[in-house]
C-alpha cells in the first residue's frame, strides 16, 4: 500500500472530564491533517479515497498531496490546494473550528492549537493556547449559565404576573361588556324621554316660532326701510345742484371718496362709487351705489376699518404718492362734511315664553343633558373595552413574560441625548439641552429571526428625518437579571439600535456541546 505519512497526523481523543481537569490525554486516532473526528472513518489509508461528492476515487496517497483532485475539495482537507477546501482544527481543550483552506499556512494563527500553520516556512509560530482559551470560555459560559439560571427564575415570576394580568383584563372585559349593555339601555331610555319631551317642546314652540318669524320679517323690513332712508338723505345731500341726479362732479367735491388719499377725487374714483356710471338717479343710487358709498362714509366717521385691498384696481388707486398720506390738502371750495352717523342698531329682544311652555323647554333641556351624559357613558365604556382589546391582542411572549414591561419606560443617557424605551409603545430621544422630544418610532412588532422571534423589537413610523425617511428603532433583547437599556447607537442616520436586557428574555441557549463532544 502506497501511504505517505506526510500531512498525516495522530490526534488525541480526550474524554471531556479530563479536558475540564486540564489533564493531557494520550489516546490518539490517526487521520489526515485537517479532518474532523466525525469524518475520520471516511479517510481509510487501506482503501482508495472516494471524493465526498462521489465524483472520483483516487489512491489514498493523493490525499493531502497538495494537489486538488476532488471537485468538492475533500481530498485536500489539510492543505490550501483546493479553493473550496475546508480545514478542521481540533483545538483540543477549546472549541473546534472549520476554516477555509486558503487560511492554511498563510502566516496567521487561526486555530488555537496552531494546527493551521504547520509548514514551518513562515516566520509565524503558533503556540497551542487552547487550554487557556478553553478555560476562559468555560468560565464565561459558567457566568452566563448563572445569569440565565437567576434570570429564568425572575422570568417565571414575570410570567406569573403577566398571566394574572391577562386573566384580570379578560375578567374586566366581561364586566365592561355587561356595563355597556346596561349603559346602552339607559341611553335608549334617555333617548326615548328626550324624543318625547322634544316633540312636546316642538309643538309648544310652534306658536312662538311663528312669532319669531314675523319678528324677523318685521326687522328685515325695518332694516330695508332704514337703509332706504339713509341712502335718500345722503342722495339729497350729495345732489348739490338738485337736478335729481348724483354725478361725478358732485362726488369729486367730497374727500371721503379720495380712495388713494392723494388730495383729490379722480374721475375713476368717483365712477367707482357710482358703479361705473356718469350719474345715478335716486333709485339707482339706493340699489347700486349705496353699497359702495356707505363703507367709505363709515370709515371717515371712524366706524369702520378699511378693507385690505385685494386686486389690482384697489391697489392701483392706492399706489399714490406717499406725501399725500394722511389728511388731504387744499380743501378749498369743498363744503364742510358732517361725519356720517348711522342709526343705532336695535337690541335683540328675546321672546318670553308662557309658564307652561317654559316648563316644557326646561324639561327638554334637562332631558337633552341627561341623554348627552348617557351617550358619553357608553362612549367611555367602549373606549375602555377598546384599550383592553388592544392589550389582549398584543403578543407579550409565549408565557406572557414581557407583559409587565408594558406601561414602564427605561432611560439611557449618552453624551448628547436621553433616550427612552417604553416597551410596546414607543422609543424617543431628547437632547440633554432640554429641547423637545423626538419620537424614534412607535411599537410595530417582534422582529427577531425564526428561532428567536422575541430577541428583537421594531418601532417604526417615528418623526421624519430631515430630507430622509421616518425614524425607526430596533431593540435587541438579551437575558439579564434586571430590565434596562444598556446601549443606544444610530448605525444609519435616523435608524436607531437599542440594547435591552431583561429577565423576560432568559432561556436556555442551544448548547455547543455537540461540537465539543465530537472533538474533546
Ligand atoms: C437629530 C437627531 C439625530 C439625527 C438627526 C437627523 O439631530 O434625531 O439622531 O441623526 O436629527 O437630522
UniProtKB/TrEMBL annotation:
Signal sequence bounds: 1-26
Signal among keywords: yes
GO annotation terms (biological process): N-glycan processing
Q: Which residues form a coiled coil?
A: 163-232
Provide the alphabetized UniProt keywords.
Answer: Calcium, Coiled coil, Disulfide bond, Endoplasmic reticulum, Signal
Q: Which residues fall in a compositionally biased region of kind Acidic residues?
A: 312-347
The record's section on InterPro entries has: EF-hand-dom_pair, EF_Hand_1_Ca_BS, EF_hand_dom, Gtb1-like, LDL_receptor-like_sf, Man6P_isomerase_rcpt-bd_dom_sf, MRH_dom, PRKCSH
GO molecular-function term, one example from the UniProt record: calcium ion binding
Q: Where is this region: Disordered?
A: 304-353
Please list the residue ranges annotated as the EF-hand domain. 226-261
GO CC annotation, single: glucosidase II complex
Boundaries of each MRH domain copy?
407-508
PANTHER family, sorted: GLUCOSIDASE 2 SUBUNIT BETA, N-LINKED OLIGOSACCHARIDE PROCESSING
Q: What is this protein called?
A: Glucosidase 2 subunit beta
- The source organism is Tribolium castaneum (Red flour beetle)
Lineage here is: Eukaryota, Metazoa, Ecdysozoa, Arthropoda, Hexapoda
